[in-house]
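Quick illustration, no need to memorize.
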Amino acid sequence: MATFSFADLSASYPTLYYDLRPQMQRKVPLLRLLPVRACTTGQAITWDVTFDGQAAGAVNLDGGNFLTAAADPQVSANLGFGAYSAPIKVTTKAQWTGSAQNSAAFLQNLINRNMMEAMMRVVKVINQDLYKGSGPGSNQITGLGTAVAATGIYANINQSSQSNWASQTKGNSGSLRSLSLALMKQTIDAAAAVSPKGRPNLAIMPSALFTVFEGLFDGTLYTQAGKNDLQFGQVMTNGGLIKATGFRSLYWASADLTVIEDPDCTNSAQTNAGNAVYFLNTDSVEVQYLPPTSVSSYMPDQKVMQAVEQDLGGLAGLQFDFRARGRQVYADEFDLTCSLNLVVKDRAACALLADVQ
């Protein structure tokens, strides 16, 4: 058994990594942008959610009454893990062909390329499930379609019992309407009014909606107070700078909002699944994974990690388990596996704008 990350492979097999890196940059925009870290709470991801209850106010120090003591109630949130795997197969014939070339490098490169391609396929499926995953009951991530909602249960907390455990959702009863800057601002403002973390700072939308969004700005709106209101080509998250290569991005300065396109963006709970925009607060959303048992001995050099994070974001450190199945046919088979989930720690810090085109 071994444990690998993209940062490990970039250091050990740089030619292979730089060949396949552009494909990764295009395929998984959201997974590249979110913070990724190892879970430290055991079999499940757990955290405490604080709901408003703390008292504060002006008092009369000249013999006035004390304020009634109260505290913010805390409720335990709990999420399980999704699990994802990709099989790798190297036939006996391929191995013998490599041996005939008197080069161990041939076989090593074949296995390493298959492993890298398996990692690419796994993270693509994960990126899709960041939106539509139905949860650990189906061995999947609990996607944004469940997490960013106005009702229902998320992380074992029921919105019907905790009214503040809800995202702001702005739909139009299934009837499509034109995307506008005003609609986006209204959705952001609604989230900011109830969010414990302030305004959302990241918007994700499908490619067709991103094209519409770009078209909403004309020569006047490109500048505000004599300054460029739009910036292209880079994404700043709470985890640092990420190169916006492989997908379109735009920073809307006056709204303090980074907008990105992700072809996988969808919300299956809506009538128009492909006509939705998510607004996230990056201080409240992250990915946590279960570290494979040998993770500590395979951690990459910090400088390597920082360089790869510029290319791939937090995805660079996501750890995969790689182990042999055992020989069953005339081929050696391996499994590449990881276990993780999306965590929205403050549901009210996020919002959804639906039924737009």
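Confidence is low (pLDDT under 50) at residues 295-307.
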